[in-house]
Amino acid sequence: MNNFQKMGGVSAMIEAATFVVGIGLAVSLLAPYQMGDLDPAQKAAFLVDNQTVMYLWNNIIYLVFGVFLVVLALALYDRLKDSSPALVQIATVYGLIWASLMFASGMVFNIGLDTVVDLFSTDPDQAATVWLAVGSVWDGLGGGNEIVGGLWVLLLSWAALRGGGLPRALNYLGLLIGVAGIITIVPAVEVLGFVFGLGSIVWFVWLGIVMLRSSPTTAAA
């Protein structure tokens, strides 16, 4: 179990890194797309002009994140299953669903971007229409709201708070992040997505350190 816990700890650190890279690129090189008020035609043109960076960004925040989320979810299940088995089982299902959504979103984006790039040189208007449809699916699967990720973090933190296995302060942070993620389902408070994203960086790093350094019993103490 010790080696599996270390794998989970490394995975948590990688998850934090994907958030850092994703947010960093979103507010720098990809800021015109992520935070600008572009119409569909302008978005399609931006994608064509920046396709390499967009591919890199997408693959990191969705596909790499999904790969290591599976490892982390199962390592946390192994760590917490004895103290609160039913709750941890439910949480783990949400963790694996979240990973599945990340894979689906990443693959939809990659295929959609290929289609837009191929169309843009001959029919920019059709390329914009295609991306309008693909972008809605991509956003809905992978980040338009954070309810699934929020449920995973919330339930894990609740289970660890009840049964031990992780530091209590980390669990309280997880509860806060989880609630913020769930509330993003309400369009008027989507700003809480930033709370979920930035808070998750801290949570993943802290979780990674705990899993790399301590046993469940020691961490709870």
Q: Could you tell me the number of beta strands?
A: 0
How much of the residues is beta strand, in percent? Answer: under 5%
pLDDT < 50 stretches: none
Main sheet makeup: none
Elements, N to C (H/E): HHHHHHHHHH
User: So how many helices?
Assistant: 10
Shape: elongated
Cα distance spanning the termini: 19 Å
Overall mean pLDDT: 91
Helical amount? over 70%
| Structural class by helix and strand composition | mainly alpha
Oligomer: single chain
Rg, rounded, reads 19 Å
Structure description:
By secondary structure, the protein is an all-alpha fold. Helix content is 84%, strand content 0%. The chain contains ten helices and no strands. α1 packs antiparallel against α4, α3 packs across α5 and α8 packs antiparallel against α9. The longest helix is centred in the middle third of the chain and has 36 residues.
